[in-house]
Design brief:
Elements: H1 7-27, E1 53-58, E2 68-78, E3 84-94, E4 106-110, H2 122-128, H3 136-140, H4 145-148, E5 153-157, H5 169-185, E6 197-202, H6 204-219, E7 225-231, H7 237-243, H8 251-263, H9 275-283, H10 313-321, E8 333-338, H11 347-358, E9 363-368, H12 380-391, E10 400-401
Helix pairs in contact: 5-6, 7-8
């Protein structure tokens, strides 16, 4: 749900990656995940502990020579039903030696993947550059510069899993936490069990981040995070579907329906659609979120057979399952959201913060006046500053700080 770069430095890196990606296409094509043996699960991988590294390889970022060491790792995880699965993550470590106190920090950066196709995944997009096409993953990936310039390490997980389950909370949580386990244990990274941990994400990346932090105490209690930051948080999918009706971002509502159809075929989403809607579900069955931009400013009643699909009992169970606030993070949180968000009404984040605060989570909440969902992503540097204070050992304000 975020498709632009943050600042001049990030734009420069993004352009370099895209140019190099174009050159790489002519020289040595990067195979898509479906054609790359690296993504295939090894035999008997399920016997490994969650977070165990199954495979690794060194990579270049979009074919560009940058002062960053980069690897991909495949690791063992479990899906939303706790069945064994695999994950892939990209580990980025600045070439500059760490000279700060203690061990080099590690930040798990959740990109807003927004897709139901593996060709849009972060690991492939970061490695292939423009060859992967323009999607959310390779558009937002340069924003990791805001973390790397602090000389911190970064892990970017493909948290949707090998079946690309968009907005699947438990899948996302497991994918994030097991990627952190794998990255911190990956010897070439130079990270150690003492490396301080942080997590950050915006929009769909914030969804994955928040789900991971809610699940961390029970799923990965040995991972002690110093802090996390989540901006433009998708907390209530029904509100989003209704909010974008007729908006420039209307395609996101169709993406959510396509994701439900992709991950939960038993729901039979096409039964709620007219002929045009059924055609979209068939034609976009494994699409990137950017593919849905062609539906800007359209309305849901042009695709459905009932007036309020967001309120359909057929979708109730799946939509309810996407909601955050089931558990309270024990990690201090920085949360930000625009009061003028045109995609995700701020009321949902207000309620989530209230829920976390009532349960004892330390939350610093910014209701920014920067207009639109995309615009509020500009507060990312404040979120990185928050993590920096936590890594420096500064205690967050006790309780909750919110306007």
């Amino acid at each position: 749900m975020i498709r632009r770069f943050f600042g001049k430095a990030i734009v420069a890196v993004g352009v370099a990656c895209c140019v190099a990606g174009a050159e790489l296409t002519a020289a040595q094509a990067v195979p898509a995940p479906t054609a790359d043996p690296f993504y295939a699960a090894p035999a008997d991988f399920g016997a490994n502990p969650n977070g165990a590294i199954l495979k690794s390889r060194e990579i270049t970022l979009g074919g560009v020579a940058l002062p960053v060491k980069a690897w991909q790792v495949q690791y063992k995880s479990v899906d939303a039903r706790n069945s064994p699965t695999t994950g892939v993550a990209t580990i980025l470590v600045p070439a500059t030696p760490w000279t700060g106190p203690g061990a080099r920090p590690l930040v798990s950066y959740q990109l807003a993947i927004d897709s139901i196709g593996s060709q849009c995944s972060p690991a492939y997009s970061i490695r292939a550059g423009l060859e992967a096409g323009i999607n959310n993953s390779n558009a937002e990936a340069p924003a990791t510069v805001t973390v790397l310039q602090r000389n911190w390490a970064v892990v970017v997980p493909d948290y949707q899993g090998p079946h690309e389950r968009f907005l699947d909370g438990p899948q996302s949580a497991h994918g994030v936490l097991d990627a952190v386990r794998a990255a911190r244990a990956f010897a070439p990274s130079g990270l150690t069990p003492d490396s301080p941990l942080g997590a950050i994400g915006y929009s769909a990346g914030a969804f994955a981040t928040a789900w991971a932090m809610e699940q961390q105490p029970s799923y990965a209690p040995e991972l002690r995070f110093a802090g996390f930051a989540a901006g433009g948080v998708p907390t209530e999918p029904r509100e989003m579907i209704r909010a974008v009706d007729g908006d420039v971002s209307f395609g996101l509502a169709l993406l959510v329906l396509a994701a439900i159809n992709h991950s939960h075929p038993e729901v039979d989403v096409p039964a709620l659609l007219n002929d045009r809607g059924k055609s979209v579900m068939a034609d976009f069955a494994s699409a990137c979120g950017t593919d849905f931009q062609s539906f800007a400013f359209q309305r849901m009643n042009q695709f459905t057979a009932e007036p309020d699909i967001a309120g359909s009992p057929r979708l109730a169970g799946v939509l309810d399952g996407m909601r955050l606030g089931r558990a309270a993070p024990t990690t201090p949180a920085f949360v930000w959201h625009s009061t003028g968000d045109n995609v995700l009404p701020i009321g949902g984040t207000d309620r989530l913060v209230d829920t976390w605060c009532a349960a004892g989570t330390s939350v610093t909440y910014t209701r920014t006046a920067i207009p639109t969902h995309l615009g509020a992503a500009a507060d990312l540097p404040a979120a990185v500053d928050y993590l920096g204070d936590r890594f420096a050992g500064k205690a967050p304000a006790p309780g909750c700080s919110r306007p």
